[in-house]
Amino acid sequence: MPAAGPLLLLHTICWWPLVLFLLLPPLPLFARTNPPTFISLHDSCLNHLDTLKTRAYHQTYISRLCAGDPSFYSYVEVPLSCTGGYNLAQAVAMGTFLGKSTMFVAMAAGQASTPAPTGRSALCMYSMEKLDQALERAQFLCYTQEGKGDKEQEAYIAYEVSSKCLKLLQVPPVTRLPVAQCERHSDCHSCLSVRDPYCGWCSLEGRCTWKLECARHSQPHHWLWSYGRDRQCVSIQSLDPAIQSREEQTQEIPEGS
């Protein structure tokens, strides 16, 4: 029995629970409890694009299932292959190779599309560290094979998502409530005394608003936060000259004038 080459992972298989019991015959070659890992042998389908025909072949798989998952939703498997066409596992034993945990599998070459082994066999070695990495990667690749979505969007909820309102789910209607009602406060003292973290007094506009609704909220004293420590309404003590324009005016003076 010659020693075969390293692990060859061809693709990832993710079975739905109902299909799982139909495709997995009882072949308890190997089982590890932490995490639960198994080796199984079942048929797969190979599509020939040139002839549009499908034929079955048998392949050895290593699979993993999370403990406490009676619905098999966490079940993943990857094909276990070695070079030379040895695809049927016959026996499994755990051991060490070069100081690392290793799985030794007696593999046989199959006869066409049947699970019957031929006289050709080999001893294949697989690093448990690499097997664990392959199974963990398979969890991320399911269920889109390449780990990418199909770019199709599907609405999760039929209602607008906004940070300015709350939606209360009732039977049967859905109640929409605003998180803040700043416009209800008509003067500065009323706006600041309510201590609403969403509201503040927009000084130049003379109204209670959200911060981003105030045109110059980034400038000092232009937007007074209702929930701030130093909240105090701005009062005008004197105005000189007595008549001022509300519009900003900029006068450009040419050089040399």
Query: What separation lies between the terminal Cα atoms?
Result: 103 Å
Number of strands: 12
Structural class by SSE content? mainly beta
Spatial strand sequence of the major β-sheet? 1-2-3-4
Query: What is the ordering of alpha helices and beta strands?
Result: HEEEEEEEHEEHEEE
Task: Walk me through what this model shows.
Pfam families: PSI. Residues 181-234 form the PSI domain. Keywords: Disulfide bond, Glycoprotein, Membrane, Signal. It comes from Ictalurus punctatus. It is found in: Membrane. The structure is a single chain. The chain has 257 residues and is mostly beta strands. The protein folds into two domains: 17-141, no CATH class; 167-232, 2-Layer Sandwich (ligand-binding face of the semaphorins, domain 2). The protein has three helices and twelve strands; from the N terminus they run αβββββββαββαβββ. It has helices at 17-23, 128-141, 188-193, and strands spanning 30-33, 36-48, 53-64, 76-79, 86-97, 100-110, 117-127, 165-169, 174-178, 200-202, 207-209, 223-225. The strands form four sheets. It has a four-stranded antiparallel β-sheet. The protein has a three-stranded antiparallel β-sheet with strand order 5-6-7. The longest helix is centred in the middle third of the chain and has 14 residues, at 128-141. The termini are far apart. The model is unreliable at 2-29 and 45-54 (pLDDT under 50).
